[in-house]
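FORM 7B - TANDEM STRUCTURE REPORT

SECTION 1: FIRST PROTEIN
SEQUENCE AND C-ALPHA CELLS:
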Amino acid sequence: MNFRYLTQFLAVVDCRGFTAAAEVLHVAQPAISRSIRLLEEELGITLLDRQKGNVRLTAEGERFARHARAILAQTRAAQDEIAALKDIRSGHVTLGAPPMVASHLLPDLIGGFLRAHPGLSLTVAQDGSEAIRNAVTEGRLDLGLIADWRSFEGVTTTRLGTYPVVACVAQDSPLAGKSAITWREFLQQPLILFPRGFYQRSQVDEAARRLGVIPTVAAEAEALPLIAKLVRDGHGAATMLADAAHSFNGLRALALPADATVPLGLCRRSGGALSHAATALHDHLTHAFTGS
C-alpha cells in the first residue's frame, strides 16, 4: 500500500475537502483525487462520500482512517528509531496537554528538553484530556499529558503526580474573605467553566450531581487569561490549579475540599513502539515530575 495515498487520504479527511488538502500538501488537486481513487480501487471500498462539494467519510472510511493513522504513526516511529540507531540525533515529537498544564507546568520542562536534545523538535497541542487521549490512541499525537491516570483502552499511562485545585473569585466577591469554601458554596455562584471533555469540568459536574445542584454556567472557555479576566470582573467563580491561580492578579484563591485535585498522567499509545524523539521526551517528563 502506497504511504503517499494514506497521507493524502488523511489530509482530505482532516481538511474536510480536496482543495484545502491540496493547499496544505502543496499538491495539485487532481493528483490527490487520483490517489484516493486508486486507494479505493485497491481496497475495493468507497472511503469518501462526495456529494455537492461536501466530503464525508463512509462507514468503511471511518474504520480505515483509524488504521491509516496508526500505520503512518508506526512508520514515523520506525524511521525515528532507525535514525537513532545510526546516531542521527534528529526527530520530531508531538505532545498534547490541557491549557492549564501547558501554561503553568510545561514551559521550563520543555525548555530543558530542547536544551538537552538540540537536534529534536517539538509540537505541543492544547486540548481537553478526553480529546488528547483519543488523539494518542489514534496515533495523531505521540504523547499526552492527561488530567487522569486511570486505565483506558488503547493507551498506557504513567502517573506523574496530583495537583490541588482551588476556587477563584474576584477580590471584591462576598466570598473573598474566606480561606476555604465547600463544593455547595462554589456551585451556588455563577460559574466560569472549562468545556465538557476537560477534567476540571467533569469534577465540577460530578460535585453538582452528587449534591443535587443545578449550577448556573455564566460562560465556558478554554483560555486561562480569559477565564481569569471574567472572574476578576465579577462574572463568576472558576476552578484552577493552585499554581495557576496565584499567577493572576486580581483573583482570590479559596481552598476546596480535599477531593479537588488533578491527577496528572503521561499517556502513550498501547502496543506501539515510541520513536527516539518521543522516548526522549517521555523519559524527560517522567523524570522531571517524579524524579525517577
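SECTION 2: SECOND PROTEIN
SEQUENCE AND C-ALPHA CELLS:
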Amino acid sequence: MDDWIDYYDSTHTIYVSKLHRDVHFDGIATDIMGYVTAPDATVLDYSCGEALSAAKVAAACGTLILAEPAPGVRGRLSARFAHHPNIKVRALDELPALPDGSIDLVVMNSVAQYMKPDELDRALGVVRRLLSRSGKLVLGDILDPKVGMGRDVAALLKMAARHGFLTDALWGLARTALSDYRQLRTKIGLQRYSEAEMLAKLKAAGFAAERAERNVGHNPWRMSFVAKPAG
C-alpha cells in the first residue's frame, strides 16, 4: 500500500477537474450520511483521502474521525477542518490506541483495492475491535474480478455528462493513459474480490456481512458491503 500512499500524497491528476473532485467527494459524503443512524454517533472514515465534504458528515453525527495514512493529505485535513470541533484527524497507526467498542460506524471506501490481502485482514481486525456491538462497517467500492476497466470509464463519463464536465473527462482519460497512476496500476495492480470472496473474508474477520443494494459513490459496477460484528 505504501506506493499508493506516496502517489495520493503527490500532486496527482486522478481527478479530471476541480468540479470532478468536488462532485466525487460530495457524493461519497452523501452516501456516508445515509449510514449514520444517530446524531451522537461516532464515525470513522478509514483512509479518507481529501474528504472535501466531510463537514456534511460531521453535521449528521456526534464525532467524525478522519483517518488518513498520507502525511501531506493529513496536514491539509487538519488545516481544512481546524474549526470543526467534532472532526478529528488521525493517522492510521493511531487507531489501535482508540478504546474498544468506541466507534458506531466505520467507512472504508475505495481502500481495499490498494491493500494487499493480509493488510486488509489486519485493518479489518482493528475495525472489528473498535466497533461497538451494534456498530457497522461499510466496505465500499470493491472491484469485481469479472468487471473490467471499461466499466470504470463508462461510469466516469456518465457522471461527467450528468454534472457538466464531459469534455474535461475525455481529456482527463487521455492524460490518465500516460500518467503515473496508469503505470502504477499496471505495475502493482489493484486487488479484486468476488462477492463470495469478500463475504468469506469478512466472516473470517468476525463479521456478519451482506452486499449492499448500491455501491458507495458513482460507480454502480463496483460493490459495497455492510458488516456487523458477529456473535
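SECTION 3: OBSERVATIONS ON SECOND PROTEIN
DSSP finds nine helices and seven strands in the chain.
The chain has a mean pLDDT of 88.

SECTION 4: SIGNATURE
Preparer initials: ____
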